[in-house]
């Protein structure tokens, strides 16, 4: 991992990828990635039916990096003409300095390849480095794929009558279950910790 945070690695299927923080010049690619999402994927991410165009305010919010309050990362396939495969962010939770809230987008054709688990490990380590104690992700109850993945990655889930909220304790790797997803997460955490935590 170099000083910018950028590094190269390989997905479980052997695909070589580049992983790096988002930068302002990524605005057109981020907008295009949003446009390429299926309506179902956009609904699961934003919880409302939207069109193919993402607003400038959302793009600015995602692209503005602040290591203390918000970070965004992307996974890129350098062999493709349109390289983005997925991205993820965390935001410091208002009024709860020890907690961050996470969000993910993985393009439809790139799901189930381990991209989300890699991004989860990066969010975990960067949030821990920023002093967070817990990490929380929210999903709609009908999004069973995301809910099952978060549970398999060791998060504790609660239902509030509308959404499912999943929480990880960032200093408790012993709580990870014996699942394939958790083993993959633990592997990424072990591999990436020296470069991110220093």
From TrEMBL:
Domain of life (superkingdom): Bacteria
N-acetyltransferase domain boundaries: 17-171
InterPro entries named among the record's database cross-references: Acyl_CoA_acyltransferase, GNAT_dom
MF terms in GO: acyltransferase activity, transferring groups other than amino-acyl groups
SUPFAM superfamilies documented for this protein: Acyl-CoA N-acyltransferases (Nat)
CDD domains referenced in this protein's UniProt entry, alphabetically: NAT_SF
Name of this chain's protein: GNAT family N-acetyltransferase
Species the sequence originates in: Luteolibacter yonseiensis
């Amino acid at each position: 991992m170099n000083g910018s945070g950028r590094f190269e690695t390989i997905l479980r299927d052997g695909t070589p990828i580049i992983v790096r923080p988002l930068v302002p010049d990524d605005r057109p690619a981020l907008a295009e990635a949003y446009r390429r999402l299926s309506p179902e994927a956009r609904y699961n991410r934003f919880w409302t039916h939207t069109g193919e165009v993402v607003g400038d305010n959302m793009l600015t919010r995602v692209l503005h990096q602040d290591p203390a309050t918000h970070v965004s990362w992307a996974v890129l396939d350098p062999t493709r003409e349109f390289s983005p495969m997925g991205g993820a962010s965390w935001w410091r939770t208002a009024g709860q300095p020890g907690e961050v809230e996470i969000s993910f987008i993985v393009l439809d054709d790139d799901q189930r390849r381990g991209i989300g688990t890699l991004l989860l490990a990066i969010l975990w380590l960067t949030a821990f480095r920023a002093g967070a104690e817990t990490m929380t992700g929210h999903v709609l109850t009908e999004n069973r794929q995301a809910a099952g993945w978060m549970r398999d990655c060791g998060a504790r889930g609660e239902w509030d009558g509308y959404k499912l909220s999943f929480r990880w304790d960032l200093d408790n790797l012993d709580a990870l279950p014996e699942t394939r997803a958790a083993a993959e997460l633990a592997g990424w955490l072990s591999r990436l910790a020296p470069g991110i935590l220093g």
